[in-house]
């Protein structure tokens, strides 16, 4: 009887973690299922630990991910080193082959919902050394303070300080970087930070060297409307669900779960901030095929107290989609990747439209069979194709 019960429990657990409804269009579904299952196991362990009061949800996942970090090891193509830019830890990748001219410079910001990840994580280490070698560029992969220990604006400020340090003439000269060919890039929360610091940089009179390009990979760009069509559709999208994305957003600002609850109900924007909703009005900013309804309905007004205590979710430094047209007009050439099966899809689509409306040169790559995390997904053919398109754009524009 005991063996039968154990077998039954095992079957149920395997079915629970491996039965993941995937859209038919997704390529190599079993690889996606396995990866999503590991994410699911990790988040369930973190939830259980938090329920028992053992540790914070994000701290548990941070611990699990720390086992996937790798040392700064040079290889036959790239020299890898660690240092700090204005006290912010960075990892630098420099191609070993000789160059007769100054190289491109790419400042990369990792994702992880402002709570997870690092430049040392194997996915980002692999991506950075690949980019440095293929692009023949000096890649700076920056770290930043993570929630729940640190909240907004710490993440933004760390990345901005690090980027400003890199853009000094003597620093660029030290690493052999052409000051006319520096770009910024990032994925997910890193895409959010890349967009935010790029906007800030064009308003900073003390920074003489400006960015040539920005490349944003499925960026998170707004926390005002947590019920845009892609979030309505995305309860069961691979890797990143709506509820997990809301948890990331709320943790960016506070450990107070009250904000998370309000954001899940889409009842967190106070009436006095409702004018900002024009910047996330998907009925005017999304292509027709992505609209769930032709008419945009404002979220239910929320408590003024939440916005007073945690003003980050109405701050343009946290939500770059809230920038006015005068700021957007001055942005550099932009590359944006969006994925069809991603709760952040509509953030990227709306940003593409707003940038196009003000005359910014935008290249938009929409991946019809992609999902959140595809870009750095290990061993996935689609990931390789996405990275090669990203590389091709950087070669032509940076």
TrEMBL record:
Entry GO terms, CC: endoplasmic reticulum membrane
Entries under Pfam families matching the protein: Abhydrolase_3 (PF07859)
Signal peptide bounds: 1-25
Top-level taxon: Eukaryota
GO terms classed as biological process: positive regulation of triglyceride catabolic process
InterPro entries hit by this protein: AB_hydrolase_3, AB_hydrolase_fold, Arylacetamide_deacetylase, GDXG_lipolytic_enzyme, Lipase_GDXG_HIS_AS, Lipase_GDXG_put_SER_AS
GO molecular function: deacetylase activity; serine hydrolase activity; triacylglycerol lipase activity
Domain Alpha/beta hydrolase fold-3 residue range list: 106-260, 315-375
Keywords: Disulfide bond, Hydrolase, Signal
SUPFAM superfamilies on file: alpha/beta-Hydrolases
Gene3D superfamilies: alpha/beta hydrolase (3.40.50.1820)
Residue positions of the active site: 188, 342, 372
PANTHER family attached to this UniProt entry: AB HYDROLASE SUPERFAMILY PROTEIN C4A8.06C (PTHR48081), ALPHA_BETA HYDROLASE FOLD-3 DOMAIN-CONTAINING PROTEIN (PTHR48081:SF28)
Family: Belongs to the 'GDXG' lipolytic enzyme family.
Protein's name in the database: Arylacetamide deacetylase
